[in-house]
Amino acid sequence: MEDPSFDAEAALTGYAEQFLLCRDLRHSWAVRGYYRKEGVVVRSLVCDRCGTERTDRWRASGERDRVVYRHPEGYELRGGRVHPIDVRRETLHRVAIYDSEADMLSDLLASRRRRNRRGRAS
Fold first, then answer.
1. Which whole number is the average pLDDT over 85-103?
2. How many CA atoms lie within 13 A of 57 on its CB side?
3. 3-state DSSP of 50-72
4. Which of 19, 68, 108, 113 is the 20 to 30 A CA-CA neighbour of 122?
């Protein structure tokens, strides 16, 4: 049951970056493998970004029987629903927004150059 006093904006403030990215971009699934259990084929997945685990149960026909998620500590926000717009607003609060694509690319290139210079032996 959703708590009527739940404030998604407040709940997302300080929320871990990798969890926010997964809520925004969706999980980055890596397949661990497949196995048989109780007459179905089970596909085991893990998110490379946040560590959420997903288990898909498939019938022999290929139809999906059930999906189960196990989220790491700190992923779930108790008390209410976080809508995609809430996630986008929080993302916009955290990121650098450039005046143009050219400005963004120029800054990214300059950052790479600085990292490369720091990485060289003196």
1. 95
2. 9
3. CCCEEEEEECCCCCEEEEEEECC
4. 108
